Amino acid sequence: MKKRIIMAGIALLTAVLPPLVQKAHAQVSVSFQVFYDQLSPFGTWVSYPDYGYVWVPAAGAGFRPYGSRGHWVYTEDGWTWVSGYSWGWATFHYGNWFYDDSYGWIWVPGYDWAPAWVTWGEYGGNYCWAPIGPRVDIGVAFGSYRPPARYWVTCPREHITSVNVSNYYVRNTTVVNNITVINNVNRGNGHTYVRGPQPANVERFTHSTVRPVPVHPTERPGAASVQNGQLAIYRPAVQHNNEARPAQVRDLHAMRPIHQQQTPQQQGHPTPQQPHAMPQQRHAAPTPQQPHPAPQQHLVQPRAMPQQHPAQPQPIPRQHPVQPRPVPQQHPQQHPQPPRPMPRPVAPPHENPPPHDPHEHHR
């Protein structure tokens, strides 16, 4: 009997301990300071009117929240965005995104975790989703909320579960203007968010069974991943702390030129990018490739100069021979002129006959 009781106790512990461990991981308490410290290498913190400290990612041109480097996985909490960015555990599950015409996409930190802070819709065989802006109340009237057109991401229904879902995005203003909101809101556990399409509805178009994937909280920040049928993601409980603040805050008005410099660089991992950017500038001076254009330019200039110097003397000698050539042509014309006066001396023999006239008189 004692052995049976012991075995039953061990079985009970093995069944109870894993959920308790997961709950312990899920209840790790942090403050906004974790956001400030962990996200600083990947973007810039600025002070924004009405929102306080906000974060501008150095993600490069074409970045879209809940659209770039990620895919959807259905979990017990609903459709969860699994981001490939190492900072995605924070920016796609806490807080909200909004778009500024001067500074691009900006993230406002938040306290509550959700599988994704987006609103869902559908139209014309497509599923659609868009980030929910800051201070939007997901209440009874949430079904009437319409994010701006640029917020929406659209994908055919049959590809919604694809790991490469970004390969199937559709950009069509007709779809955006006719979206029907999927009002599937979760209101339990003190959290209110949108769960997304019903699994049965997704199965109709993907022709595959949709089973919820368990969420396994990790102990350290990092990119989320699906391993062994579980979604491993860092999801701490965020507490209020008025003393938390970024180590470095940029001026809001100075962000525009910085943003323009970052857009051509498609950056997602600033940690390797900063060292890469530095060596590129360092190699710019010593590399033989860049010095070559410099001497080539210097060589081109001196070549242009000697070409001009010989070009100037060359026309000069060409002009001299051109002038003497007409001169000899004139001389031969003048040489025949002196022989013309030669016949003139013949005139004197004709003029001499007058002196012979006296002989004629003698005759």
Task: Give a written overview of the molecule.
With 363 residues, the protein is an alpha+beta fold. The protein has a domain at 22-259. It contains 12 helices and 17 strands. It has helices spanning 2-26, 32-39, 88-91, 173-177, 199-206, 255-262, 270-284, 293-311, 315-322, 326-334, 343-351, 353-362, and strands at 29-30, 43-48, 52-57, 70-75, 78-83, 96-100, 104-108, 118-123, 126-131, 153-156, 180-181, 185-186, 193-194, 215-217, 225-227, 230-233, 237-238. Strands 10-9-8-11 form a 4-stranded antiparallel beta sheet, with no helix packed on it. Strands 14-16-15 form a 3-stranded mixed beta sheet. Strand 4 and strand 5 (78-83) form a beta hairpin. The longest helix has 25 residues, at 2-26. The radius of gyration is 45 Å and the shape is globular.
Short description:
This protein is an alpha+beta fold. Helices cover 35% and strands 19% of the residues.
Note the topology.
Elements: H1 2-26, E1 29-30, H2 32-39, E2 43-48, E3 52-57, E4 70-75, E5 78-83, H3 88-91, E6 96-100, E7 104-108, E8 118-123, E9 126-131, E10 153-156, H4 173-177, E11 180-181, E12 185-186, E13 193-194, H5 199-206, E14 215-217, E15 225-227, E16 230-233, E17 237-238, H6 255-262, H7 270-284, H8 293-311, H9 315-322, H10 326-334, H11 343-351, H12 353-362
Annotation keywords:
363 residues; three-stranded mixed sheet; 35% helix; globular; disordered C terminus
